[in-house]
Amino acid sequence: MLRGIAIAAVASAALFAGVALAANEAEPPEAYPFSFNGPLGSYDMAAVQRGFQVYSQVCSTCHSMEHLAYRNLGEPGGPFAEYRVRNHETGEMEARVGLPAGEHGEYVDVVNNPYVRAIAAGFQVPDIDEATGEATQRPARISDHFRKPFANEFAARAANNGALPPDLSVITSAREGGAAYVRSLLLGYTGEQRGMQYVNNHFAGRLISMPPPLAADGLVTYSDGTPSTREQMATDVASYLQWAADPHMEERKAMGVQVLAFLLVLSGLLYLAYKAVWRGQSH
Amino acid sequence: MSGPSTYEPKSGFTRWLDRRLPILRLSHDSFVAFPTPRNINYWWTFGAMLSLCLVVQIVSGIVLAMHYQPNIHDAFASVQRIQRDVPYGWLIQGIHAVGASMFFLAAYVHMFRGLYYGSYKAPREVLWILGCLIYALMIATGFLGYTLPWGQMSFWGATVITNILGAIPFVGESIQVWIRGGGAIDQPTLNRFFSLHYLLPFVIAGVVVLHVWALHEVGQNNPTGVEPKTKDDTVPFTPYATIKDLFATSLFMLLFAVFVFFMPRALGDPANFIPANPVQTPNEIFPEWYLLPFYAILRAFDFNIGPIDSRTAGVLAMFASIGVLFILPWLDTSRVRSMRYRPAAKQFFFIFVVVAILLGWCGHQNPGTTLAKGGQFSATLNWVTGGQSATSQIVAPSAPEFQATSDAAEAQARAQGAAMTSVTREGSVRATLIAVTGGTRQTHTFTADNADDLEAQITAAKAHIGGSAPFVQVIRNTPFLFTVTRFAQLLTFYYFLFFLVILPILGLRETPNRVPDTIAKPVLGETQGAS
Amino acid sequence: MAEATSSGAHGTGETTRRDFIFIAAGAAGAVGAAATIWPFVDQMNPAADTRAMSTTEVSLAAIAVGQQIKAIWQGKPVFVRHRTPAEIAQAQRDDYAQLKDPQLDEDRTKQSNGSAGKAEWLILQANCTHLGCVPLPPDNPGFRGHFGGWFCPCHGSDYDTSGRIRQGPAPKNLYVAPYLYLNDTSIRIG
Hints:
Chain A contains 8 helices and 8 strands. By secondary structure, chain A is of the alpha+beta class. Chain A has 2 domains: 27-66 and 149-263, Cytochrome Bc1 Complex, Chain D, domain 2 (Orthogonal Bundle), CATH 1.10.760.10; 69-144, no CATH class.
């Protein structure tokens, strides 16, 4: 039976190896060595932090991220999570924002995280004034979901020539190619324009309604001093969006390693037990 | 088969319980003392994995139902909340989603094993049919569950499948509206799909009990297909089969864990991370991998069969492809149970496995994609340079007579010395005839790799000829194209051929190899020979 | 048959090794099963979004003397009561009365950081410490209390003007909600 399956696999691979792509199909995303690639990869938290800055200052004028709340930024594994880390020279405990991979620290509950509170307070979100019942704006709290750029789909389309900017909460999961696709798309503009659309070699059909969002270097000023080239910004925001779509990835992979190790040991023991039970039995 | 019970209660309590509820006796007879053919191989361990899968799906599903909201406005967000905020929600959701695939993977191996070793033959017909019933219920449950995240694939999958029901002759449309609770997939649909998705696994569990009951009545089949005759042929289920099942299941869990922890989204479709949008179908829609072969069969019928239109034919074929499994015990006429001793049947079986996998491959391709073509696309252009063209009107007495009238007019023009003629129809009975007399007849032939290139060349040539000719005659030649649909038709043909023709006829005509008298004989013989 | 001879033919060393394997495999399986159960138990604990809904801000400006409002904090009601001087006086008079759960009124107006609050503002979790109903204030129809505070309609627990249990099945005083003054006219609960 196994033999049959193997033959099938080989036959199907050999027979149809060279099926050509249609003419205006998008170019496949350019591969990029993101730190989170691979079974053991983890997030480059500095890149995710910078990516959040790019999202906040550039993307968020049109794109919502409705499944994220400000508190997510400071939850374990988040880019602005606060950890108490021992400084080996002074022996004192110091605050560290966004723990680099491989370091250990004591997590500070997001409710007590001043950085996330400050980030949230910098955004105005809609609310109802309890005294008057009127719609009002107030500074966001950490439990609030990300501010939406538009009140509803109609407002979004009206402001974007009829096109609807997609929500970015899970965009890297929702597109074939994930973060590499997002990065390629952001860098894939050729500079040509057809009416209200832009030529982008990485977009299906090669015409996209989104004007080049990262049109020039230096669009944002990174607080960590990293030069904000177009490539840097695209890479950072792709890293951030990957984190946003899969915030438990590091925990998942770490647990996976333990589970696989355990199952290997268990399988080994069960194999020995199997051999011991069947010892002397012909079968 | 199981013989009299060998259970002996050891303690006072178990003696007391045994007289009131002999549940320990039942467990002992079913899972400890149950005589198991000593020669069963690893293909027999998939039943244990399937039990594990059912338990995992039910437990993780009950947990997810504690957090999921069956509401079209909240469903997508509630799944996101499970993945982001619920403690270990990402893990449990991952287990449930991957678990569906693992369940089907194990089920397919289990079914192919049953097919190869003839586990459906007397006296195991009912056992086999119950298994088919479980499989059908699994498909229904998987489909219902796939709707719940309310992504684009959820929505459009539900739309397409309920439309499939709409194709059932006579009652289809009523059933479709009844299932949906309205004209379209909407809140009532999601709500009832959630309810049914919660219910069906327990129905499956009930049928599994019957399946196991039937198994213990008739006993396990084995690779030789020979029924155990003496005690030498069997070993007690525990510890022998138990430990083997545990070991194999542990390996299965390794594969399961690789998916859950390292590629939880590999088996899903990215489009399901886009919230359902009833006015925008995704560019490509596919069912989950485990339903692709049936999807390919559904799409293979692109032609009407007499009064049956192509849609109905595809739907009927798809249902028939599963339905045929139910009557398999009476289709296979061979008296030899295991294909191990049926050299010809074995070959057809392996082809069947390949066909099933290739059908799955076809299900994931664009049906119009050309896999191979019988030659080049070509076109011949004829035109006349110079000469004089004369235009006249054709008026036929009635529409059915148009062709004859037109042919007669052309023949007349040619008889009068026209080098070329062209008829442009302008209505049911009217047309314009252009006839060119004199001049030089020109011809040119193009070839191209595909239809688009060919049309581009024709357009360019026509522009080049331009006004120098009153008209250009184009004769296109499309080579035979072997598309995915054609391929799927061939595969579908074999699928049904295998069950409906090969198995019935082969059983009567093939000469099987010698079948051993007992299980123990070849087993013991081989071992002694080896040592 | 090999089966018949297996137990007799192998020595005790072989048996020990076999037993070790069985025990090790069994123990590993048990550990794995136990570890698997935890996520399925933990998932029922409050989710991250629930845990983050931990603070509520209340403006005191609109609450007149003698009135109370119910704020919602973590999904449960909180009494924010603007006490009259008479109520405060009564509460302080009762500080050394026969109390089931002795506590000074002064301690019951403290902020969550331990600093003193204001005597006229009482911030209490609004669920009866017996079985969780919301007790009625004196101006509510159906109030049958004897101590001028709150009366629980479910099982008759009777609280005084400091929210202390005076009579009835409740074992504890109404709990003081953790709160801080943000300024003179607003507080944050939680």
